[in-house]
């Protein structure tokens, strides 16, 4: 019995390990990307499930279409502009969370050894999804707005990747935002080289400062957009989607048919039931207010307890704060000490596709109250003194 | 922009196409593998979801463990014997339907070009799942009990496959059952050649005649067992599982982390809530009674309206009847005529991994009443006369 070769390259399932460790009630976890459980619109979702059972009954429990529940797809299409028209239902496929969108894209596009361009650093779940299809990674240099177009162009002169994966809004892990002009420059380079862009946008609605910026998929061609309800509604429902050209969606559908036939039918209907009551905008306002307070609490606690020990990027949205440790070479070295202190973070190395040594760490502030955040940062400071 | 090479080998998404065509209300579909919607325990499931919302609230909507909801995994382990002990929770992973189990196994075990042994014919969804990971297929000759051990041994002398995929109970598409002695012979060959067996058992509980036979996973080593609630509860919930050695489960978990992080948390808890009330055994009894009536109605209608035109295998369980058309070379030739007659079946060729011409067809009897079955078989007879 022999596993596939790529399995050797997979790490130890760090996301899963963190999810498990985070279940220790004593632990303060800044490691996950967990939205705040106490803010979930649980009653409204309960009502939505009830209503689907009452009005649609057994049909919500039957097999359904691979591309997803049509009314949910229609609703999602109606939320997106594409070249001065609304998106069409044929341009949307429902996925089992955004993570499945990443995996389906990899399976649909990658032959073994194909190259994928990624940001430096990038979302570790994307690295995992693409590794599962034997991707080669090339990390494109980034500045404060993300991918540097001239660096992208230089890379494209030597390598033809299957796509460039990026998170323009409140990037994971760095929290950076790509401005409008940068987006346009990037699209120009992409068009010149016929480069497919994969735009992942789980955090775009969680904006605490500044104005909303149009998505790449709304500004140009050849963009695959990934959306999700995990951060604005509830991640346990596993409802995400991909918006892209119809031909790409048809191919993703073909892939998904072999992968899981379709996503949970009942849940898709319940999410649509929730959405059609137009409850989401107010809910997002509430999330913004609460997360903003937590963001500020973390920034303040870091100033107070870590001071010069950490150089941080203060995010204007999203779930994460990215910090660089002073006088430390490898942030991995402190993981064990921190677990003893009952505090978790994600070491920066995990976000680099080449696994380089990093003195950075990603801290999540969305799922802890200001008091807990303060206590957690105190523990971090204590752990760092060891 | 270029898709992965394997995409060319994928058919036109026949399962998805059938699911779509089956939504025409005039259509009588014998094509799907749909369980009967009117038999779903919808009220009990509604209560289960309500209870989870009331008792567990938001925690049922949060991210959760990749391997699945621990109480559901425990319950499933308790249902299976392994070498005279009960299975352990570490030997179970929850999947988004059994289809995901197939896809995860392929991703975890297959390098491009690796060979998979399959029955002749086999489940077309398994062909799709394995094609997505560039499998080579070798079809092992079968008799009335499925895989012929001597033929398997002969094949193993020339080729080392990653695994043999088979459906011992009420095989899809043929309805065949592998007897106890045959299972033991098969395990002996597998052990001799260190061959991994993938035992898919979606229909085992739907038994209308004969006695229950122990699963391969209960009889020997190196067996990966796939189970699902799609046929005994409701497929739209997408809850399946894999039972295997702990090391295999850990690898599947690693793969699943990149693929969709975890399956729907709320739904797993609701299914467990349903199961722990011990409602399933009575529900399965009801399914058996109703499906048995439908099975007999189809057999009788075929005798009445098709007579010598079709040679059928009368199944003793499951959802399907397998028929061979007399005086016909390719059952694909009639698909268009049948759609005009508003009746659907699946042409036999789709179940052969080599895509050979076939004069066979698979007919599903579980999701139509006896009256509809009679009408559908009349339409089939009419279509065949064209």
Automatic annotation (TrEMBL), chains A, B:
<keyword id="KW-0032">Aminotransferase</keyword>
<dbReference type="GO" id="GO:1901605">
    <property type="term" value="P:alpha-amino acid metabolic process"/>
</dbReference>
<feature type="domain" description="Aminotransferase class I/classII large">
    <location>
        <begin position="44"/>
        <end position="380"/>
    </location>
</feature>
<dbReference type="GO" id="GO:0008483">
    <property type="term" value="F:transaminase activity"/>
</dbReference>
<keyword id="KW-0663">Pyridoxal phosphate</keyword>
<dbReference type="InterPro" id="IPR015421">
    <property type="entry name" value="PyrdxlP-dep_Trfase_major"/>
</dbReference>
<dbReference type="InterPro" id="IPR015422">
    <property type="entry name" value="PyrdxlP-dep_Trfase_small"/>
</dbReference>
<dbReference type="InterPro" id="IPR004839">
    <property type="entry name" value="Aminotransferase_I/II_large"/>
</dbReference>
<dbReference type="InterPro" id="IPR050859">
    <property type="entry name" value="Class-I_PLP-dep_aminotransf"/>
</dbReference>
<dbReference type="Pfam" id="PF00155">
    <property type="entry name" value="Aminotran_1_2"/>
</dbReference>
<keyword id="KW-0808">Transferase</keyword>
<protein>
    <submittedName>
        <fullName>Transcriptional regulator with HTH domain and aminotransferase domain</fullName>
    </submittedName>
</protein>
<comment type="similarity">
    <text>Belongs to the class-I pyridoxal-phosphate-dependent aminotransferase family.</text>
</comment>
<dbReference type="GO" id="GO:0030170">
    <property type="term" value="F:pyridoxal phosphate binding"/>
</dbReference>
<comment type="subunit">
    <text>Homodimer.</text>
</comment>
<dbReference type="InterPro" id="IPR015424">
    <property type="entry name" value="PyrdxlP-dep_Trfase"/>
</dbReference>
């Amino acid at each position: 019995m022999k596993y596939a070769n790529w399995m050797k390259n997979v790490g130890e399932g760090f996301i899963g390990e963190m999810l498990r460790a985070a279940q220790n009630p004593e632990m303060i976890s800044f490691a996950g990307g967990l939205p705040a459980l106490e803010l979930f619109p649980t009653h409204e979702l309960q009502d939505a499930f009830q209503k689907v059972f009452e009005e649609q009954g057994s049909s919500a429990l039957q097999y359904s279409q691979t591309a997803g529940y049509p009314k949910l797809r229609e609703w999602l299409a109606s939320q997106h502009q594409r070249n001065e028209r609304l998106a069409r239902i044929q341009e949307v496929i429902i996925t089992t969370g955004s993570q499945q969108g990443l995996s389906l894209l990899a399976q649909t596009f990658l032959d073994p050894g194909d190259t994928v361009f990624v940001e430096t650093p990038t979302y570790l779940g994307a690295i995992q999804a693409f590794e599962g299809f034997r991707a080669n990674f090339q990390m494109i240099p980034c500045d404060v707005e993300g991918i540097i177009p001239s660096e992208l162009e230089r890379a494209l002169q030597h390598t033809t990747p299957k796509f460039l994966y990026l998170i323009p809004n409140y990037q994971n892990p760095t929290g950076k935002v790509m401005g409008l002009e940068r987006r346009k420059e990037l699209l120009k380079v992409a068009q010149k080289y016929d480069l497919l862009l994969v735009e992942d946008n789980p955090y775009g609605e969680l904006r605490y400062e500044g104005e909303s910026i149009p998505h790449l998929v709304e500004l140009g061609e050849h963009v695959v957009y990934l959306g999700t309800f995990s951060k604005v509604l509830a991640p346990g429902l596993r409802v995400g989607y991909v918006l892209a050209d119809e031909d790409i969606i048809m191919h993703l559908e073909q892939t998904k048919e072999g992968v899981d036939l379709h996503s949970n039918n009942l849940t898709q209907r319940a999410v649509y039931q929730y959405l059609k009551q137009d409850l989401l905008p107010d809910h997002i306002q509430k999330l913004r207010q609460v997360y903003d307070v937590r963001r500020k609490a973390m920034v303040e606690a870091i100033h107070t307890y870590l001071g010069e020990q950490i150089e941080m990027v203060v995010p204007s949205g999203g779930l994460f704060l990215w910090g660089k440790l002073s006088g430390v070479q490898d942030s991995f070295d402190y993981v064990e000490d921190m677990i003893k202190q009952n505090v978790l973070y994600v070491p920066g190395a995990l976000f680099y596709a080449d696994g380089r040594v990093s003195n950075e760490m990603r801290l999540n502030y969305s799922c802890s109250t200001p008091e807990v955040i303060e206590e957690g940062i105190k523990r971090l400071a204590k752990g760092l003194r060891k």
